[in-house]
Amino acid sequence: MFPDNFIAFIGITTLVSLAPGANTMFVMSQSALRGRWAGVMAGLGIEVSNVFYFLLIAFGLATVVATSEVVFDALKWMGAFYLAVIGVLAFGRSFQRAGPAPVTEVPTVRSSHGAFFDGLMIGLGNPKTIIWFLTLLPQFINKERDVFAQTMTIAVVGTVIDIAVQWLYVYAGGHLSRFLGERHVRAWFERGMGIIFMGLALVVALSHRA
Predict the structure, then answer these.
(1) Contact, 27 vs 15, CB < 8 A?
(2) Using one digit for the tens of pLDDT, what is the confidence trace for 140-154?
(3) Of 4, 21, 74, 90, whose CB has the highest number of CB atoms within 10 Å?
(4) Rounded to whole angstroms, what are the CA distances from 112 to 23, 167, 180?
(5) Which residues 6+ apart lie within 8 Å of 30 measured at CB?
(6) What's the confidence (pLDDT) of residue 97?
């Protein structure tokens, strides 16, 4: 891999990390609604799930997950359920803000409670992640060399890139929180995020193992 297609790996990984999806949307929404630390903790939970998948690949267990219909469906429905719950809760909270708000209302809830666990569950419940890893990583691994060492190197580099991109979403979410002081603006933001997460839950639920 090094240095032949290292630059290509960095470029592809950066583009994949930047692409909006369940992970990035969750990190940004947590930062906007609950403070930047909550966004950081959500991102950390997602990264722990990614490291777990990297380890599965390094030890050769990922193929079992990718080829087993039962395991794939279990992960799929867990992820869909978690995304749906987050979406429904966000959508429900938006209607609780329909009434008049006091002038002194705090625009964001400064709490990271549960953000790490939610991020972890969303990351683990995305079976497409491991399928993507199995499709992408072999292109950058030389089978004539130490596969485990190469996989761990890729894992470290990929995780660093993903964390850097998530910081951008945390920063963006933090700036969005400035506009959420108005009760109706915050309600519509939560309503929109609720719809997005319910839509992502549907996408995950309808996914099939290729």
Answers:
(1) no
(2) 777 777 777 877 888
(3) 90
(4) 16, 16, 18
(5) 38, 39, 41, 42, 112, 115, 118, 119, 173
(6) 53
Side-chain-side CA neighbours of residue 82 (13 Å) = 21
Q: What is the pLDDT of residues 80-116, one digit of tens each?
A: 887 788 788 877 766 665 554 443 343 444 456 688 9
* Integer-rounded Cα radius of gyration of the chain: 19
Six-digit token string for 71: 């395991």
Contact 112, 34 (CB under 8 A): yes
What is d(CA 47, CA 166) in angstroms, rounded to the nearest whole number?
Answer: 10
Q: Where are the domains of the chain?
A: 22-97+109-205
Residue at 139: amino acid letter: Q
**Rounded to whole angstroms, how far apart are CA atoms 35 and 106?**
11
**Does pLDDT of 39 surpass 80?**
yes
